[in-house]
Amino acid sequence: YGDASQKVDYVFKVVLIGDSAVGKSQILARFARNEFSLDSKATIGVEFQTRTLVIQHKSVKAQIWDTAGQERYRAVTSAYYRGAVGAMLVYDITKRQTFDHIPRWLEELRAHADKNIVIMLIGNKIDLEDQRAVPTEDAKEFAQKEGLFFLETSALEATNVETAFTTVLTEIFNIVS
Ligand code: GDP
Ligand code: MG
Fold first, then answer.
1. Which family does this protein fall into (predicted)?
2. Ligand 1, pocket-test mutation among 27, 28, 40, most atoms within 8 A of CB
3. ipTM score here?
4. What's the pLDDT tens digit per position in 105-155?
């Protein structure tokens, strides 16, 4: 954690998208600061957070952008997507609607972002397994069909959050290096 290293070899912009309240900001808090808050307020103001990691002996600064509560369909502006080389497309496994909206988000993403963008589909809140409304198989199938990476996470329990980001960042690294 922290940006203690002196020299940065790469800066990768990654955007978080998906419906409101699926856990985007908490996934980011977990990844960037190893923090979590159960009563997180809707995101205001903060545009992005960074974390520098080492991938194959190179220093990679991940610049992760979080929507400032603009998750209403089409409210996320093209500036948000500009320059993004990775995207985390998040839904809540306990809210079927948030998964049903994923194709829209994907369409929006593909309309605005670079065509080589690396995309990870994330089903968040797997700590709430007893309230699951989206079968893992459905999401896996969708991801396969669309050529996306796929993982289920819990920002609360820190499950797979690190893996989700390192998978995307390593894939980007392999493309650009
Ligand atoms: P955003 O609108 O997509 O940024 O969603 P937030 O990150 O603000 O999270 C919305 C709510 O879901 C907050 O009350 C969070 O504490 C909660 N939340 C986020 N991630 C998880 C998770 O993995 N498990 C559980 N149980 N709650 C979560
Ligand atoms: Mg938020």
1. Belongs to the small GTPase superfamily. Rab family.
2. 40
3. 0.99
4. 999 999 999 989 999 999 999 999 999 999 999 999 999 999 999 999 999
CB burial readout 89-116, b (16+ within 10 A) else e? bbbbbbbeebbebbeebbebbeebbeee
Q: How far apart are CA 38 and CA 20, in angstroms?
A: 15
* pTM of the full structure: 0.93
State the Cα–Cα distance between residues 176 and 16, nearest whole angstrom. Answer: 21
Please report how the helices 161-176 and 24-33 are oriented relative to each other, as an axis angle in degrees rounded to 10.
80
Q: Structure tokens of 8?
A: 């940065």
**112 CB-near residues (< 8 Å, 6+ apart):** 78, 80, 81, 82
Distance CA(64)–CA(66), nearest Å, equals: 7
